[in-house]
Amino acid sequence: MKEISVCLDDYEFNCTITSYVNQPAQGESADSDWDCYGYEEVEFDVDSVFVYNDDGNLCEVINKVEKENIISDYMDRIENKILEEIREEAEDYIDYPEPIDYYDY
Question: Is the pTM of this model over 0.90?
Answer without folding.
Answer: no
